[in-house]
Each structure stands twice: as structure tokens, then as C-alpha cells.
Design brief:
Layout lengths: L2 H9 L6 H13 L4 H14 L3 H13 L14 E5 L7 H11 L4 E5 L9 H6 L10 H11 L1 E5 L6 H12 L6 H14 L4 E8 L8 H17 L3 E8 L7 E2 L1 H12 L7 H16 L6 H13 L2 H12 L18 E6 L4 E6 L1 H11 L15 E4 L6 E2 L4 E7 L2 H14 E4 L9 E5 L5
Parallel strand pairs: 1-4, 2-3, 4-5
Antiparallel strand pairs: 5-13, 6-9, 7-11, 8-10, 8-12, 9-11
The chain binds uracil.
Length: 439
């Protein structure tokens, strides 16, 4: 079998066979196929797509490329949540300590930043000392001990995704439905959870730009999961505007801590965190209705159990727990530029993609897979959509380590904000929920 023939077929829009997909992934793992051939195949998939069958085969091969976690009898009660990627999306970091504090075991494999979107692993690595490179044994032991563990997939779990993910990030092949579906579902299957919640985002800051595309991606993932014996709930949510006020690795951890301390009680991050946590509690049969589940969850924030669970997680993974009280430990940047509104009115819109782009320019993301990132930089949105603003009010704050980059980022942020006289109505963050469906 020759890799070039596999690429040739896909380039012409012909299906690859199961054997061809197996061969490609095996060669990727053994290091016998160069990055440029894999990248060419990814680009062919981007343009010609994969059938549902090919997507199932690819997902299955990616699962088999590494270890899978067997939680034994604990597996039925374990929850896993994954987002298709967004801007300022810190909901994993707010959700997992909250659910673990509720007594729900969580085993989570997360990714790094991809394309313009941020990654939970990069965000967690902004915590000094935090180790995301857990072995399977360490992950299992930690979930058994403190109910929660979070790791990167790079070591022994879905290594094929680790490699494909890094190549997609730098070859503009991220926003392909079958590649996203295989990447996410393979990680979820390998991490052993039986209860899987996917946050499928649409909008300017998401890979799927419309709710219709998010619905198609959700159906693909739910069906691939079903073929591989996993029950998946997909929740379609808006990513027109960054989630919360902080965008950037360390800044997002700080905002998550503020939520878990009970200092942020309303807004999109609170809404989504409570909704996902309530869905998990209902999936497990612990609550029958959303409002009583949310009341219980709010109690865990108010009595300090959620923030204490985050502390336990940080300590268990070697991180510096003092960051919870002392944000100076994050070593935030030299330049902090407060940018002001040039007119009065209401914020109509904040384009998530433009804010993400500005953040990447500051150094919060990668251009090449080997690029280091600057955890400390980012953008804080002092105003969000629907909020009133007066000429001269601070609209957003740029945290940067470089004056030139700050100026460039400011240009994109200026373009991202729309202000007008009309008062906006914020729509519900959740568009639709999709559960396992028939073929
Ligand atoms: N998140 C993933 O884990 N993979 C993708 O391809 C996109 C988002």
C-alpha cells in the first residue's frame, strides 16, 4: 500500500477503505509517513470530506492508536465533557471541580489551542507547576482518590489525535466536520467515560459558523459514538461573542477561579456551567429537573466546596495552589492598556474571531506546532454585549509583553466591537440539544 495512492483517491473524492485508513494511522504512529503526506491527506479530506463510515473507521483507528482507560465498574458513573472549541471558553475549568464537588467522578482528556481557539491544556499550564502529562494509571488513581483528573492526550492516549491535531492546527485544516468528529469522539472513547456531553459551538468564534452546521456536526458525533457504543449528548451553543470577559490562558483561569469562589453569579459562563452540570446530574439520574439540580450546584459554590475541589485538583497535579488567593503568582504582563469607547450606546456585538485573532497576535496561541506560547497575555472585555457604554468608558483591556503587538491587537479589537443606540436582547446561549438518534 502506498500513502500517495491513499491521498490520490481522497483528492479525487473517492472513499478510502478501512485498510487504507488503518495503514495511514499506523504509519503516522510509527513515524514512517512524513508530515507533508499526512498534511496533504488532511487537506484532501478538508475539501472532499469523509463518509460516515470512513469517519467511524478513522475514529476507531485513532482510539486504537494508544491506550484506552478502563475504569471498570466506575465507568458508568463517570462524566466527560468536551467543547468543539471557542474563544474565552473556560467552561471545562469551571465545570469539572463543580461536578466533582457534587460527587460525580470526572476523567477529562483535553487539547491545546487549535486554530484561533484556546485549549484547556494551555490554560491549565498557565498555573505554575501544573502537570497535564498524566499517565493512564495516574489518571485513574487520581479520579478514584479525588473524583477528578485532567490530562493531555499526547502521551499514550489517542496519540494519533495528538499528531493530527498539531498538523491541522498549522495547515488550516481544523474546520472539517469529519476531522473534528474523529478527534473529539476518539478522545472521549479512549478516556473511558460512558456519559459524554459535547458542547458544539457555532458562530464567528467557532469552527462551525452556523447553527445548521453545528447540528450536522452534532449528529455526526452522536452517530459515530453510537456505532462505537457510546452515548453522547450534544448541546449546541452560541460562540458569536467570547465566553465571559477574559480571553487568554492565565486570565481565563483567574475568571474561572472567580466563578468558583462565587464572585460571578450571572452571565454566559455561569449559565453554561450550570446547564452542563445539570445535564450531567440528570444523565446520571441524580436529579429529574434542571432547576433543582442548579439550586444544588449553586449551594456547592456558596459553601466553598467547588473552589476547594479546584484546589485539590491543582495540588494533585503538582500546581501552585496559592494562585487561588494570589493572582500575582501568574506573573501577568508588563503592559496593561485600557482601551476606551469612542461613543455612547449599547454594545451590540463583540466579534469572537477578531478578539481571538488579536489574542493570538499577542502570543496567546501558536502559528507553528513548535511555537512557545505566552500564558500571561490576553484581552479582558470590560463591556459585553447588551451593556450600556458611555463615551470614554473602558471597553477592553489588553495584557501584553510587547508594545508593537499591542498596537496591532488593538486594531482588531476596535473592529470587533459594535456599539449603537439600540438596546440589544441577549439570546439564550443554548440553541438545541441532540441525543442519540436513529441512522
Ligand atoms: N476539539 C478537539 O478536540 N478536536 C477538534 O478537532 C476540534 C476541537
Amino acid at each position: 500500500m502506498r500513502i500517495v495512492d491513499i491521498i490520490e483517491k481522497k483528492k479525487k473524492g473517492l472513499p478510502n477503505t478501512q485498510e487504507e485508513i488503518q495503514y495511514l494511522i499506523k504509519s503516522l504512529i510509527e513515524g514512517t509517513v512524513p508530515d507533508y503526506q499526512v498534511s496533504a491527506w488532511l487537506m484532501a479530506v478538508y475539501f472532499k470530506g469523509l463518509s460516515k463510515e470512513e469517519t467511524v473507521w478513522l475514529t476507531d483507528e485513532m482510539v486504537k492508536s494508544g491506550d484506552t482507560i478502563d475504569f471498570g465498574c466506575l465507568a458508568d458513573s463517570i462524566v466527560d465533557k468536551h467543547s468543539t472549541g471557542g474563544v474565552g471558553d473556560k467552561v471545562t475549568i469551571t465545570l469539572i471541580p463543580l461536578l466533582a464537588a457534587a460527587g460525580v467522578p470526572i476523567a477529562k482528556l483535553s487539547g491545546r489551542g487549535l486554530g484561533h481557539t484556546g485549549g484547556t491544556i494551555d490554560k491549565l499550564e498557565s498555573i505554575p507547576g501544573f502537570n497535564t502529562g498524566l499517565t493512564v494509571e495516574e489518571l485513574i488513581e487520581q479520579v478514584k482518590k479525588i473524583n477528578v483528573a485532567i490530562g493531555a492526550q499526547t502521551k499514550s492516549l489517542t496519540p494519533a489525535d495528538g499528531k493530527l491535531y498539531a498538523l491541522r492546527d498549522v495547515t488550516a485544516t481544523v474546520d472539517s466536520m469529519p476531522l473534528i468528529a474523529a478527534s473529539i469522539v476518539s478522545k472521549k472513547i479512549a478516556s473511558g467515560a460512558k456519559n459524554i456531553i459535547l458542547d458544539v459551538k457555532y458562530g464567528s468564534g467557532a469552527f462551525m459558523k452556523t447553527p445548521e452546521d453545528a447540528i450536522s456536526l452534532s449528529k455526526l458525533m452522536v452517530n459515530v459514538g453510537k456505532k462505537l457504543n457510546r452515548s453522547i449528548t450534544a448541546v449546541i451553543t452560541s460562540m458569536e461573542e467570547p465566553l465571559g470577559r477574559a480571553v487568554g490562558n492565565a486570565l481565563e483561569i483567574i475568571e474561572s477561579i472567580e466563578f468558583l469562589k462565587g464572585k460571578i453569579t450571572a452571565g454566559d459562563v455561569a449559565d453554561l456551567t450550570y446547564s452542563f452540570a445539570a445535564i450531567a446530574l440528570m444523565q446520571l439520574g441524580l436529579y429529574n429537573d434542571e432547576s433543582s439540580a442548579i439550586e444544588f450546584l449553586k449551594g456547592l459554590i456558596n459553601n466553598g466546596k467547588a473552589i476547594e475541589k479546584l484546589r485539590e485538583l491543582i495540588v494533585a497535579q503538582g500546581g501552585e495552589p496559592d494562585i487561588i488567593e494570589n493572582y500575582d503568582k501568574f506573573d501577568l504582563p508588563e503592559f496593561k492598556v485600557e482601551c476606551k469607547a469612542k461613543k455612547s450606546g449599547f454594545v451590540q456585538k463583540i466579534d469572537a474571531y477578531k478578539i481571538a485573532y488579536a489574542c493570538k497576535l499577542l502570543g496567546a496561541g501558536r502559528d507553528k506546532k513548535t511555537d512557545p506560547i505566552d500564558y500571561s497575555v490576553g484581552i479582558y472585555l470590560n463591556k459585553k454585549s447588551g451593556e450600556p457604554v458611555n463615551n470614554g468608558d473602558i471597553l477592553y483591556t489588553i495584557y501584553s509583553n510587547d508594545e508593537e503587538k499591542t498596537k496591532l491587537a488593538q486594531r482588531y479589537c476596535e473592529e470587533a466591537f459594535s456599539i449603537s443606540k439600540d438596546k440589544t436582547v441577549n439570546n439564550n446561549m443554548i440553541y438545541k440539544i441532540i441525543n442519540a438518534e436513529e441512522d
